[in-house]
Amino acid sequence: SMSFRKDGNYLELTADSLDELFSKENTKLCIFIHGLACTEWWWSSYAEKEYGDPRLNYGQLLEKDLGYTSIYLRYNSGLHISKNGASFTKLLDELVKASPREIEEITIIGHSMGGLVARSACYYGEQEDHSWVKKLKRVFCLGAPHFGAPLEKVGNFLTNALHSINTPG
Questions:
Q1: Percentages helix, strand, coil for the chain, rounded to the nearest 5?
Q2: Taking CA 73 as the corner, what is the angle to CA 129 and CA 136, rounded to the nearest 5 degrees?
Q3: 117 near 88, Cβ under 8 Å?
Q4: Where are the beta strands (DSSP E) in 15-83?
Q5: pLDDT value at position 3?
Q6: Residue 164: helix, strand or coil by DSSP?
Q7: Positive or negative CA dihedral for 132, 133, 136, 139?
Q8: Which residues of 49-83 are buried (b: 16+ CB within 10 A; e: fewer)?
Q9: Residues near 16 by Cβ (< 8 Å), separated by ≥ 6?
Q10: What distance in Å separates the CA atoms of residue 3 and residue 10, rounded to the nearest whole number?
Q11: Rounded CA gap, 18 and 34, in Å?
Q12: Which secondary structure element, helix H or strand E, spans residue 135, and what is its range?
């Protein structure tokens, strides 16, 4: 099931847990979203390759350099993007409501399918008038196939072609 993660652990959306997450000085939140068939660990493996430290991830670098609180979204990439987007917008709304501190700004960074899930969540969040949308300052989509992935296009073409063939049933 979809959840937020921090340092590899499930993040409970309770006032106590979120009070530990945010420092008194820092209420800027960055959410990293992985791509297809990955988990939040994807962000660590690339930081390790680039910076040579196996304990390092991009969230930690963002916290150190720009003062953000970073968390990671884990979701089932086998589900449809719209279903994940709708679930993400509700989960983010729960986080904002449960936080004992006012979250002043939100940034979302999505890789590949994660960028599409982020975009879908923004759509549903706006449609449903969630309060977190007003706090959203940036969405970065890294390698997100906004116009369709080549494999998905081929799959759709083949599906339509096969449906047009009259087969005895």
A1: 45, 20, 35
A2: 35
A3: yes
A4: 28-33, 69-74
A5: 96
A6: coil
A7: positive
A8: eeeeeeeebbbbebbeeeebbbbbbbbebeeebee
A9: none
A10: 7
A11: 22
A12: helix 132-135
Q: What pLDDT, on a 0 to 100 scale, did the predictor assign at position 126?
A: 97
Q: Is 98 in contact with 113 (CB distance < 8 Å)?
A: no
- pLDDT for residue 116: 95
3-6 and 69-74: which strand pairing?
Answer: antiparallel
What are the tokens at 152?
């998905």
CA distance 117 to 119: 5
Strand partners, 107: 30, 138
Low-confidence ranges of the chain (pLDDT < 50): none
Give me the residue label for tokens 């679930």.
Answer: 87
Residue 154 burial (CB < 10 Å; 0-12/13-18/19+)? exposed
Provide the pLDDT for residue 83: 98
pLDDT tens column, 104-137: 999 999 999 999 999 999 999 999 999 999 999 9
**Euclidean distance between CA atoms 50 and 157, whole angstroms:** 38
* Residues 10, 73: Cα–Cα separation, whole Å: 10
pLDDT at 111: 94
CB 109: neighbour CB atoms within 10 A?
22
Between CA 70 and CA 72 the distance in angstroms is: 7
